[in-house]
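Re: the 767-residue chain
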Amino acid sequence: MNTLTVMALHPASSGFAHAGSPQIGSDHSRRTLTAAIPGGRTSPLGERHPYVSLHAQPSPLPPDSSLPLPDVQDELDHTVLRSGRTLLARVTRGVLMAQEGGMFEQTAALLTDTHRRLRGHPVAESVTVMPGVLLNLGLAQTLCGRFAQAEDHLCEARSLAEERRLPLMDMVVRQNLGCLSLYRGDASGAIATFHGLTDRLPPERREALHVDLAEALLAEGLVEDAAAALVDGPWADGAPASAHTMLVEAKLRLLRGDRLRAVELTRRVRYTFGTGSQWHRLAARLERIAVRGDRSRPVSRARNALAARRPLAVPEPRGRAAPHRALDALERTSSRMPGPWLAEAGNDPHVVQAGLENALEAGDAAAALEWAELARTWAVPRVPGPGVRTPATVSLAEHYRDALAGGRDPNTVARRMESARWQAHHEARSARSSGSPSPSAPAREHADGPRRDPRPVPVADALSERLGDRAFVRYTRAGGEAVALVAADGRVHARVLGPLPRVARALGRFVHPLLLPGHAFGDDARKAAGTAADALLGPLLPLVGDRPLVVAGDPYLGDPPWGMLPPLRGRPTHLVPTARFWLDRAPAGTAGPAVPGRVLLVAAPGPAGAGREVAGLAGLYPKARVLTADRTGRSEVLAAFEEADLVHLAGHGRVPHRAPMLASVTLDDGPLLACDLTALPRVPDVVVLSTCWSGRGFAGRTGAPLGFVGALLAAGVRAVVASPVPVGDSRTDTAMRRFHRSFAGGVPLPEAVAVHLGPIGFCCFGA
C-alpha cells in the first residue's frame, strides 16, 4: 500500500498551525493559500507538492509550500479563500482518517465528495491540487476494492501530472497504480512497476515502495527476495514502523516459520487501532492465520501459507484457484506423483513443498524426487534468469563497466541493473498474461527463452537408465529439516540430514573462511571441512559408496567448493541445477564431453600469474589460439569464443553482491561481464574460468543459475570449470597445467577436475 498526497490549508482550527506562518493578505495581486503539510517535503525536482506516507504518523514541518489561486475580484476574495480552506481541509481530514485510523471507506467517501466540490473552484487551478486529490482518491478506492473507479482516478491524476510537469507526483501515481495491479491479481505488473521506481524516487519516499515491493514478492511466493527488499529499504532511524510495514513483516516472519514474532507484530497493530479500522481487521485476519490449528500436515501448512501470501487488501477469492484445487487433490491421497493434474499449481512453491513433504511422509522417495525437481524450478518463471537483455540492461552494464574501469563505486549501478532485470522480466510476464506486447523487452527475447511447458516430466526412471555407475544426489528441505534424495542402483532413497539451521551452520563454518582472499587451508579449515562433510555427506556414503556423483543443490547450501570436502576429493562430481538438466545435456554412454579440438587460451592483463599460466598451457595445445596482453579486448575474446571448442580464461574475477550477472573478468579494454556471454551465437563445449569467484551465483538463489556459469550453461555450453571461492596464483598455475595435461590425454573432464582442481576450490558445472 502506498501513500497519500496531502493538500491542506493553514487555519488555526485545523490543528496544523505553525508559529510564524505567512498570512494571506487582501492586497496581493495574485492570492495564495499557504499549505500546512504533515510530514511534507519540498520535492528535489522543484515541485511544491509534498507527500506523506499513508501509514506514517504525521510530523508537522514548516509550511513552506503555497498553492496559487487565480486572480479574483476583491469582493470575492474572502469567500474564495474560506471555501478553498474548507475544501482542502477536507482533503487533509480524509487523509488523516486513513493515515491515523485506517478508515479507508470513510476516506474514499469524503474525498469523492470533495473532488466533486473542487471541480470549477478556483483552488483547483493550482497545478498540484487536483492531481493530488485524484491520486489520494484513487488509492483509497483501491484499498476499498473499487478497482475500476480507482483506475479512472489514478489515470486522470497521472495525465494531469504529466501535463503540468510534476514528475514526482507522476511517480507516486505510478506507485499507486502498481498497488492497484497487485490487488487486482497482477503481481508481475506490480513488481515491474515498483522496480521501475526504486532508483527514481527520493530516499524519503522509498520506505513505502520497498514495503509494497516486498508484499508483491510474497504474493508470488518469493519469500527470500521479499526479505531482501525489506532489508534494502531506507529505514529512518528511530522512526516507528507503519501498520503496513509491520503487517508485511509479520507475513514474512510467518512464511519463514517464526509464528511468535508474527503474532507479536499483528497484535501490536491490532492494539494500536480500533475495531472500526481496516488495519485492525487485516491484523486480526493475519493473526488468525498465525495461531490457527493443525500445522502437523503438509497440506494444512500450505493452505496457511497461501492465505498469508494473499495481499492484505485483497478480499477472499471466490471459487477454488489452481493451488487450492491441487492441495485438495493431495489431501485425498497419502502419496501422489506430480503430473498434468497440477496445471499451473506446479509453479507454486507451497503446493510443491506440500507434495514433497507428503511423499516423504508416505515413504515414497521416488515421488519425493519428482517434487524436488519442481522445488528447484518453480521460481524460474518468477525470477529473472541470465537471458534478460534489454536496451536498459545493456546501458547499465556499460555504466557498471565504466565504474569499474574508472575506480568508482559500482554498487549503485549494480543495484540499478538488478532492478532493471526484474522490471524487464516481469513486464514481459505481465504482458504475456494480458496478451499484450512487453513495453520494454524486445518481442524476440523473453526473459528466459520460450515459455516453459508447465507439465512436469518424470525423471526417476530416466535417471535409473542413464546414471550407470554414478549416483545422483538432490539436496532439498522438508519441515525444517535438510533432506537428501539419492538415486543409485535403480532406486531412490531419502535421508534426513538434520535441522536446516544446524546443517547450514556447519557448511558456513567451512565456506566463510575460504571467502577471504589469501586464505590458508590449515588445521581449523580441515576440521571445518570434515564437519561439513559429515553433515552433508555422512548419511549418504553407505548409499553412494565411491561412485562418481551428480549433485543438484538447494539455495540453503549456497555455492560451496565441493571438491574440498574430504569424501569428494578425487571423486568425479557434476554440479547441475536439476536432474532434468543433466539428462538433457549429458552425452549418452560417456562421463563427459569429448576432448575438444579448437582451443582458445586467454590471459587477462592481470594478475601476473595469468600470463604464466597461459604460456604453460600453450605448450600442451600447439594449435591453440592464444590471446594475451593488448590482444585481450572484449570484442576479440567474444569473437574467439564463437570459434572454439575449449576456452581457458585466466584473470582477475569479481562478483558484486546480489548482482551475479555483473560478474566480471578484467580484460585489456575493460571488464568482460557475465551478461556479455548471453548473446553469443555459438558457444564452446567446455569453458575453464581460472579466476576468483567465477562459480558464484550458480545454486545459492531461487530460479535459474546466474553468474558466469549460469550465463554459459544457458547459452549452451555443456560444462564449465570455475571456482566459487578466491584462488591463488601459484597453486592455480601448477594445478591448471596438470588438469589440462590430464584432460588433453583423454581423461574425462569431471575426473580431471576432481583430481587436480577440486582440492583448491574448482568445480565442474554442467554435464
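The first strand starts at residue 3 and ends at 4.
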